[in-house]
Design goal:
Elements (H helix, E strand, L loop, with lengths): L2 H11 L21 E8 L5 E9 L2 E4 L5 H12 L14 E2 L31 E3 L26 E4 L5 E2 L7 E6 L7 H15 L3 E5 L14 E2 L2 H4 L19 H11 L3 E6 L1 H16 L5 E6 L15 H21 L3 E7 L6 H10 L4 E3 L13 H11 L2 E7 L24 H15 L5 E5 L2 H6 L4 H19 L5 E6 L2 E6 H4 L11 H10 L6
Parallel strand pairs: 8-9, 8-11, 11-12, 12-17, 13-15, 13-16, 14-15
Antiparallel strand pairs: 1-2, 2-3, 4-7, 5-6, 6-18, 9-10, 17-18
Amino acid sequence: MSLSGMAIAFKASTSACTRQQPLGHSTRDQCQYGFTHLNERRSRKGSAALHVRASSGKLDLDFSDPSWRQKYQEDWDRRFNLPHITDIFDLEPRLTTFSLKKNRIPLGDVDGSSPDMWNGYVHKDDRALLKVIKYASSTSAGAKCIDPDCSWMEHWVHRAGPRKEIYYEPEEVKAAIVTCGGLCPGLNDVIRQIVFTLEIYGVKNIVGIQFGYRGFFEKGLKEMPLSRDLVENINLSGGSFLGVSRGGAKTSEIVDSIQARRIDMLFVIGGNGSHAGANAIHEECRKRKLKVSVVAVPKTIDNDILFMDKTFGFDTAVEEAQRAINSAYIEARSAYHGIGLVKLMGRSTGFIAMHASLSSGQIDICLIPEVSFTLDGERGVLAHVEHLLKTKGFCVICVAEGAGQDLLQKSNATDASGNVILSDFGVHMQQKIKKHFKDIDVPADVKYIDPTYMVRACRANASDAILCTVLGQNAVHGAFAGFSGITSGISNTHYAFLPITEVITAPKHVNPNSRMWHRCLTSTGQPDFH
């Protein structure tokens, strides 16, 4: 299967978790914790009296079984166990070459004559907790429950960081870095930190694969030797120092190239589709019994990777979106019956639109893919725009690019990554507003702003730069620890290693019943458009 085929398969497998849901749907995030279906009995009054069974991934849970908690926990531990090269090879670790001892003086030893007791390594059994809220009821805002009683279950994941023991000889390692998909603020920051950390371990042979997975098979695209001196200042500009592209050759052809190049570590920086491709490469390497660690770094401006607080580029996108929103606000407020319309990124998720609306405080209407709405009718969006023009004289609207796709003619076309090419809802919204006010003979001055490519191409802000630094460093720590088929992320404020197979199960979505979406509605004051 080709890597673009992997992306298409990923999109198809997640359809059950990506449908638009009405406001108040309490099970919007069931896919995140593996709970996908619940059978229930109801009393005559209509309240839920007894929930009998639920499906967690491939595990069928019977809540009448006293051991269901143990079974669930064992299933979770199995799913989040990290693939390791010792699953295939009989290897003994060696002491790490990564050390910051030379920069430290032990406490109580000013002259540095006693042994250094620096405890800077992560124990292999360290874990981070994914969920810290104990919900009392499944009807609580944003509740993520496994059973009808919302029993407390511990969701542990592996803590990221350097280990005392490693499974590679640094001077023998050839490491490769590839950036896939579209542009995103912070790509150069991650590349830079991967190179820095590899060199601290003692790796001398570091190469960049140009223009995504294409660089493995396209004639004329040579490896780019990388070093600290070369990448020292690449974080000062946006884009990707290595270049990006979508799609790719068959997995077997890419692994052929990896084998021919004698690559030992591959760092894949990309989103959901690129992660699916990285996992396919990992599986093919295991099939061929190649000692290759494939480690991903989550790059998606949409912030739609499961189990992660956020992905790099997201904070910068929200910050840059403020410029567009502020411009739309000034244009709208300065015009008679002015309407500012801003379209932001978000193919299937509304995180950027929601957070940008919240942070700006200037948005009257926020439309996202996860919440369905109607444009026409007395409860539609256009009627509310009318109301805003009558009451305040102007309005500002923020829409995610994937919003309202059910109102448009669907396209069966896909891009090189297997993503469905969306109809342009921003332009459609602009035309609908103009037509609506023309039909009712009310003047309206619509200003439409689409800052997509400006946001994608800028350099990372301070928050994202820090996140990129840690993710890049941890990716290298994970590879030297012998893991493969993993990604480096931040979960519940802690940096963690996660198996790629779990994070590509479904995209992460805004939960319409979450407190954050409720906060957005409180800020905009918009009604339910149904």
